[in-house]
Structure to design on (144 residues):
């Protein structure tokens, strides 16, 4: 392989990487600009059962707590995270550890009263890539 060919391959790889980063950045900005919703029953109906990515914030301080992706957004947010348990939800487990909440009921009360979320419906592959990218860039408090 000659030097010109190697430089050309590096330039092509660099352009592909730049394009992928630009695409993920656009997707991430899209979710960050979307409305935030509390964990009320009214908002449960709004969330699709389709795949996508979501963010969870602490309302009063605006801290980004968690970023995740799911094949079923509604069941992940309202089943596993809001009313589930620490076994099924790393968000609940990490929140419990961070705030020293002793019971599942205390965790649910905190989430329902003090947290809000955003979501973006997208296919599973995009959601997975976007989740990794968003966690690396935004470094949410409870993603470990």
């Amino acid at each position: 392989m000659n030097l010109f060919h190697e430089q050309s391959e590096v330039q092509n790889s660099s352009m592909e990487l730049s394009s992928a980063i630009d695409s993920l950045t656009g997707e991430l900005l899209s979710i960050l600009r979307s409305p935030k919703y509390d964990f009320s029953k009214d908002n449960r109906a709004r969330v699709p059962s389709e795949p996508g990515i979501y963010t969870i914030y602490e309302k009063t301080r605006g801290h980004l707590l968690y970023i995740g992706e799911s094949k079923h957004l509604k069941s992940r947010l309202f089943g596993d995270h809001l009313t589930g348990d620490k076994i099924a939800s790393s968000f609940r487990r990490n929140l419990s550890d961070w705030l020293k909440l002793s019971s599942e009921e205390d965790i649910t009360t905190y989430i329902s009263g003090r947290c809000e979320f955003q979501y973006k419906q997208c296919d599973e592959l995009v959601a997975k890539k976007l989740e990794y990218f968003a966690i690396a860039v935004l470094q949410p408090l409870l993603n470990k």
